[in-house]
Structure formats: structure tokens, C-alpha cells
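Hey all, quick one. A colleague (J.T.) asked me to put the iron/sulfur cluster job into the tracker so the inputs and the C-alpha cells live in one place instead of scattered across chat threads. No bug as far as I know, just bookkeeping. Sequence used:
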Amino acid sequence: MALKVLLINPPRFEGIPVIREERCEITERYSVLEPYSLLQTAALLRQAGHQVSLLDLNGRDQSYGDLESEVRRFRPDAAVYRFTPTTFDWDQKAASTVKEVDKSITTAGICWTLHTMPRQVLTEAPDLDIYIRQDYEVVAPALIDALSSGSSLDGVAGIAFRANDDIRTTGKPVPLKDYDLMPIPAFDLLPDLKPYYVTAPAGRPFTILYTSKGCPYKCSFCTVAGTPWKMRTAPHILEELRYLKERFGLRTASFFDETFTFNRKRVEDICRSLIEEDLKVKWYCNTRAHLADKELLALMRKAGCRGISFGIESGSQRILDSVEKHVTVEQAKEAVLAAKAVRLKVLCSFIFGLPGEDWDSVQETLGFVRETLPTSAQFNVAVPYPGTRLHEQIYGVTGLEEPDFRKMYQHASVVGTEKMTPEDLDKARKMAYKALYTSGRWWLSNVKHLLREPSDLYLATRYAMKITNNYVFHGMRDAH
Ligand code: SF4
């Protein structure tokens, strides 16, 4: 029997947009992203014969009142929404709103960051019936099929659910092996792409998209460390971009993959296809510093890449080794300079407060920034997310009391290191932003970039407005 399923991206949190996508489940004041994972889920459910409606309340800046109207109109059998740790209680209102209209509607929520604490999630979210803990691409369709056939939820891997006043969890799902089997996400359920942008509202129409997913590296602080890497081939990616170009006039895409250049041959294939087809879509990606050399970066630039983001984490080799980054500071410097040399914008992200951090290593990170002058930088503080090795090292061994997961955000420390208090780390973060934004050499380097890339002028202006606003008025909270 086909079910009616309502997919919900909850509203903004205190007016601030929220990203609810696997490794990135956070508030982010200056980005409004498509609910890509829900669009994928919608396409999968339709493929299985179910009837689907989707509400992106965050994207459209709508309220729970709009959700209530849609529930009354659509009368779904099941409602699936995403939630994040810091917006947990707010996001659970999606379930309460649905239940207030009709208690018999099954509610299911997706969140990756809390996947190791299903009991706590269900205990603290009374209107949530089923928690989809991992691999939504396989688990959500299996769950809806089970609900539709009335079969036991014990047979659906990757979930936690309520049963006879108890909470039951099922085993690990088998991850999707062939990512090319995913249908094109159901973008047609969005009226348009007008609300969406990343970092600054420029280059629209814009979308995020995954060309691969997962990361087999083992960085101790990362919530997706050691997850199987699955990838799409060039023809499959081109099919989606072509569709987005034709339907929405897409101009910019951010490949949301954790490690876009993990497989060099695949990246070369994608680039050659993009060059051949000349879709005139500019794109951005994330990767690790040792997986990007000048030759590859030049090819990416030729294929439309305009910016790359590296998770550098620290300018101190001692710190990189302590978190098993398996990249050297020299490799990181070379990658940043090579990307700049081929006229890519470079975003570097850093984390203060990883094991062993002290004021000397903070200075090494600031030295790295001064030497390489990336186009922009994010300075975060370390967050010991549940399920990471960092979490185990801090709370498993020391017996320290764990903070409320609602407080885990990379703009405010919940824990210090041996040599630095949480307050020191917050201070280091602000100091780093101040050092960057008041650096004449940094501004000059970006002006030089603009002289070579005048088409970036509008983006650069919006970015400058953003950082001023963020630094002066918001103290770099809920944003980077
Ligand atoms: S390389 Fe990036 S995505 Fe992969 S484990 Fe390390 S931090 Fe996470």
C-alpha cells in the first residue's frame, strides 16, 4: 500500500537559518541551503510508489503554523523531519505540531550527530515515534515500506523506536554501495531556488549537492570519520547539473562532499565532462590538503571550480598528529598556495582546543594564516561530539561530566585542554578572527585576487559586509 509522506525541514531557529545535513547539523546565520537529504529521500520514496509532499520551512522562512496547515491539507500517514543537537527542542516541535493535528500520524526524525545516543533522543523527544539514526538513503525507504506493509520495525536496521513502554534499537544498516543508484533529488518539490545561498547571497540560483559521501579518514574529532566512501560517476552528476540548469538556470553549486578529491581519476572525469559540456556552472568543493596538487587544481579551475575549502585544523604538526589528521603542515601550506596560484578562492578551517593545544600551538596556527593568507578562514573551537574518539578520550577516560548536547556548537568551548581553559579557547578564536580581519596584507591579497577576478566583486562586497556584521554585531556566534 502506498503511503502519504510529508517531509519537513523545520523553521529557522530564533530567526537564524539552520543546516540540517549529516556532518553539518548547525545554525548558520549566513547560509540558507536546500534540504538536500530530504529531497533525496523524497525522490526515493516516490520511486517506491509513495505519495510525497515537502515543506522547507527553513528555506522559505515559514513557521510551524504553515506546517499545521499542510498537515491538515495533505493528511499524511507519516511525517519525516530532520533535527540537530543545538536546535533539538525547537525541531521537535515538528513532531508535536503533526501530533496535535492527528495523533495517528507516525513521526520519524533524522539526525546523524546524535546517532550513538538513541535512548536519550527518544526520551527527550516525546512526540518522536521513530529515530532514523544513520544512512537515511537506505533506512528511510525501508522504514516507510515497513509502515506501509505493517511489518515489524525490528526488521528495519538503523532506527530506534518505542515499543511497550520501552525503547528498542535495531542493528547497523548496510550502507548504499552504488551512489549512482540514487535518483535525482526531488527538486521539483521546491517552488524555485531563490532563497538558497552559501556564506553570502551571490551567484544565485545556487544549490548544494553531494557527488560523493562519507570519509574513510580517521580524524578523532570528526562525526563522519571512518564512514564508507560512496561516489557518483561523472555522467550521473552531469545529469543532475544539466537538469538544474534547464529547470532553474543554476549558476553556482557547492559540492557538499566531505572529501571531493578522494579519487583523483573520478575528479578528472568530472572535470573533463564539465569542460566538454560547458554548462557555465561555477562550483565549490571541500577536501583534504594532501589530495590537491597544482595540476589537479588547474584542471578543476578550467572546469568551473572557483573555490576550495580545506580542513587544515591547526598550524602545529604536534596537534595534527594528536588527532590523526595524517597531513603535514607543509602539505597544507603547499595546497593553499597551489590553489591560490590557479586563482581559486581558498577557505581554510581551523579548530582551537584539540588535544595538546596551548598558546604556542595557537601561535603556530596564526603563523600559518599569516604565511598563506587564505581568501577566508573559519576558526572553530573543538567540540567533543558523541561517538567521536575525541569524546571518548575526554569523557570516557577522565570521568568528566558530559555537557548537554544542546550546548555543542563550535562557537563556544564546552571543555578546555590541559594548558588552556574553555575561556582561553574562546579568546583564541576571537583573537584569530581579529588578526585576520585587521591584517592589511590579507586585505591586499584579496584585492589582488579581485583585480584578477573582477567577476567576484559582488560576492566580495557581500562577504565583506557579512564579516563586518558578524564580527561587530554577532561576536561570531551561530556563524563562521
Ligand atoms: S578528512 Fe575531514 S571529513 Fe574526513 S575524517 Fe577528517 S575531518 Fe572528517
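Adding what we noticed when we looked at it: The first strand starts at residue 4 and ends at 9. The chain has 16 helices and 17 strands.
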